[in-house]
Amino acid sequence: METLAELAGRPERCAPSIHIAGSKGKGSVTCMITSILTAAGFRAARYMSPHVTDIRERICLGDSFFDEDVYCSAGNELRSIAEEKLPAENNPLFTSDSQGYEPTFWELLTLLFFLCARRAECDVMVVETGMGGRLDSTNILDPLVSVITLIELEHTNFLGNTITAIAGEKAGIIKPGKPLILAKQKDEALEVFRQKAQEKNSRLYYFPETGEISNVGITPQGTEFTFGALRLSIPVPGKVQAENAALAIAAVKTAFRPGTVTDDAIRRGLANVKMPARFEKLIPSGASAAPPFIIDGAHTPESFALCVETFCMLYGEGGVLIFGCAADKNAEAMAKTAHERFAKIIITTPGNFKASEPSNVYKIFTALAVKGKTLLIPDTHEAVKQAVLLAKANKPLPVLGAGSFYLVSEIRKYFYNS
Q1: Using CA atoms, how far apart are residues 89 and 136, in angstroms rounded to an integer?
Q2: How far apart are the C-alpha atoms of 38 and 184, rounded to whole Å?
Q3: pLDDT digits (tens, 9 = 90+) for 32-42
Q4: Contact criterion met (CB below 8 Å) for 386 and 375
Q5: For 250-290, what is each residue's pLDDT tens digit?
Q6: Cα 153–172–175 angle (5° rounding)?
Q7: H or E segment and range at residue 391
Q8: Nearest to 170 by CA among 198, 186, 146
Q9: Rounded distance between C-alpha atoms, residue 77 and residue 142, angstroms
Q10: Which of the pair, 234 or 394, is modelled with greater confidence?
Q11: In this structure, are residues 91 and 121 in contact, taking their beta carbons and an 8 Å threshold?
């Protein structure tokens, strides 16, 4: 990635940045920081993954797409680098040991983001890591501040199979002399971050030690809470989103001089934040009276448990769950969370972007649930259709789709493109 950036004239240095890593909540924090900075008058470029319906969701200006000519000109620049500068025989930056190396999709997409931000003359970049941190392609940044959300066991085949190992990878985004905003962590993860912050001479702001939320109110329309002297609201239900908002506020307050981001900008930014597939209510045209259908990209045991808790608090237990997860996720832990909370559970395929084993997930769920409660419908659109029919035939019942961003992407396509 360093070589690619050098070939492109170091576009990651075109503007100051804020860098976000973590196992859960990092996408929400990225969206919130971007929305706050946009409300404060910044041209804020946002990089995050995955996308839900359009790949441009990964590379945005604020919460909107860049102008088409920005994508086109940056894409042409990327093509020129790949075709003219990248081949090893024409590139003195490559050593003989790296002959034949080809950049990954993620590396090229990351470079495209930086090229777009430079083309659009952005004031600041808000950048979410893809996986881990230490070796992630975004980690060529030298940010104003780093943010690390809660750490869980995830991507264990790449990041390690202990919380300590995974925290070590995430801690790789901590930069010398630059502050770290850190969410509440398990003790073993906290120790890793404290040690790394000390090594890097990075000031550590650890929640909840340096701030706390209170007076949390949750409705189907969103979440209200108090943070410091501010009474705030976000249009996404869930206490965890209030906690994510606190991290976002701390990040912008730490990154910029006092008064640069006003309390009013924080209020407006959070009130208008857009976060697809984060407890999003789907409303198909002409069906406002249909049963509530919520989608959430929760795909770790902790995030899934919080999602289910919020769903049941708002809509009651005994609804319908559509679930699918990638093969490397902890399906057993999520099954234990779900099996007593839903009347019907439909196991399906979470898209085809990542390897999945819906038949194995089905076996895990059926081992816990009563006979006949869980169905296996591999075709995602058929699974959504059956869930809607089940929901309408019973009371009606609320529906939750969760377990994978790729699954909720397919559900969203069914609702709005079918």
Answers
A1: 26
A2: 27
A3: 999 999 999 99
A4: yes
A5: 999 999 999 999 999 999 999 999 988 899 998 755 555 57
A6: 145
A7: helix 380-393
A8: 146
A9: 23
A10: 234
A11: no
d(CA 39, CA 53): 25
Q: What is the largest CA-CA distance in the chain?
A: 69
Q: How many other C-beta atoms lie within 10 A of the C-beta of residue 11?
A: 21
Q: What does the alpha-carbon distance between residue 113 and residue 376 come to, in Å, rounded to a whole number?
A: 39
- Over residues 70-83, the pLDDT tens digits come to 999 999 999 999 88
> 48-57: buried (b, 16+ CB within 10 Å) or exposed (e) per residue?
bbbbbeeeeb
- Angle formed by the axes of helices 331-338 and 301-315, to 10°? 20
| Amino acid at site 2 | E
Identity of the residue numbered 408: V
Strand intervals (E) in 96-153: 124-128, 145-148
- The sign of the dihedral angle between the CA atoms of 246, 251, 252, 254 is positive
Cα separations in angstroms, 367 against 4, 22, 114, 371: 49, 31, 47, 9
Three-state secondary structure call for residue 293: strand
What gap in Å lies between CA 349 and CA 383, rounded to an integer? 9
Rounded alpha-carbon distances, angstroms, from residue 148 to 108, 318, 329: 24, 35, 21
Q: Rounded distance, CA 381 to CA 83, Å?
A: 39
- The closest of 95, 63, 81 to 11, measured between CA atoms, is 81
What are 148-185's pLDDT values in tens digits? Answer: 999 987 766 777 789 999 999 999 999 999 999 999 99
What six digits make up the tokens of 162? 């202990």
- Tokens 């410091």: give the residue: 228
Cβ neighbours of 352 (radius 10 Å): 10
C-alpha pair distances (Å), 154 with each of 23, 176, 229, 302, 347: 7, 26, 36, 11, 21
Which is it for strands 145-148 and 180-182: parallel, antiparallel or unpaired?
A: parallel
Token representation of residue 262:
């006003």
